[in-house]
Batch of 2 targets.
Target 1
Amino acid sequence: MKIVGSNIRRLRKEQNYSIRDFGKKVGVSASFISQVEMGKISPSLSKLRDIADGLNTTVGLLIGETDSNNSSPVVKKGNRRHTDHLGTGLNVDLLSRPDPFKQMEPILIKLDPHATSGDEQYQHYGQEFIIVLKGKIMISLNDTDYVLDEGDSMYFNSNIPHSFKNLKNSISEALWVVTPPSF
């Protein structure tokens, strides 16, 4: 997570935000931003999205996704951009190459046993599609919980407050497609 922190620090400074002002902008304390920038803590997925939005960038760029000028549309398994233990036990693989014109972002999310997207529901512009590849995941939309088993899928508008949780004592995996791309 050190690359995430250093990318946040670099972009924050390039945009002339103090730690305190930037923390206010994204709704967290200056101490939280400082600890993330130093790699001492990992933000939840929802907080990382808030930070990316506050810096007018994507989560993908914060975790180190770069355009390697490779024109191939193929992303080999061993060449995926990856981040471990994002926030509360989420591991994310980006499944597509950087492209300023892409309109969706496919990601593979692996959730550690009982991992969650964070303590609070979050919302953003766009839509999401999920298919559970392994395990059992609960998706909460507003006050309704939906349990998805292996092979189950779901589609919803991202402006509905939502969160998710692995209900298994083992790793669960899901293919997630988000529009517009924010990773």
Note: The helical segments are 2-14, 19-26, 30-37, 45-54, 59-62.
Target 2
Amino acid sequence: MSDLLQHLFNGVTTGCILALIALGYTMVYGVLKLINFAHSDVFMVGAFMGYYGAHSLGLGKGAERFDPLRVGLIFLLSMAACGLLGFLNEKIAYRPLRHSNRITSLITAIGVSFFLEFGGQMVFTANYRSFPEIIPKTHLSFLGIEATNYPVIILVTAVALMAALSYIVYFTRFGRAMRAVSYSFETASLMGIPTDRVVSITFVIGSTLAAAGGVLYALNYGEINPLMGVMPGLKSFVAAVLGGIGIVPGAMLGGLLIGLCDEFVVYFGLPSSYQSAITFTILILVLLFRPAGLLGKHEPEKV
């Protein structure tokens, strides 16, 4: 029983990180019907900004004691840098193509992704880097689960960020504007909603969440590199599709389910290489039998 609880805990921890990335995919798709494949590389940039922020604040070799001010500044630096990157991505790469066909925007998104990946290799080099322990690591034991404090920090931070996003989307004026743009871009524009501003802020919010996910991922796994966002990004995309792309609760649900699926591969003693295979099998099955996702509703399209 304790072994099952251990794997459930690990799966939920992984799922929270995937959910933070998936939220960026689903938010952008909701307002623009665009799959922003560069989003996974914003996650990578967030991890590197956290790495350089830790070194600039004197935590490059780890922290001897918990310093909430400096740790908070590291997260804020990473989230601000990625928020700016998300804004520039939308402003420079996507906005000029907004009225083009979808395949043009999709190819552009893939191009931006490659630009960030290989640009990251030029700027950061292709070497793996050890992420500093910006928070002292301690070992915890509860209900038969053995863990460090890092997964607990991930759970608390991810839940807090997802709760804040849910509040913004469903209980604020901007959230109503975003949902209106998601429902009908043209109608929202005619009703006086500043659609360009809504789209830009949506990119910024999604990118800041990816940055937080990048720092949490790097803190938990201890290593970063310019291609670190590829597989988590693909799994997060599957999570968004599984939950219902364009639906915020669906991205959260999908991230948790994919995280649990990955962990149960280990629980049942299967090779870890099966994790990706099972993830993409889930994607194929969802597209075949439930293309709108678990929380989505099928809406016929006019042709």
Note: The mean pLDDT is 90.
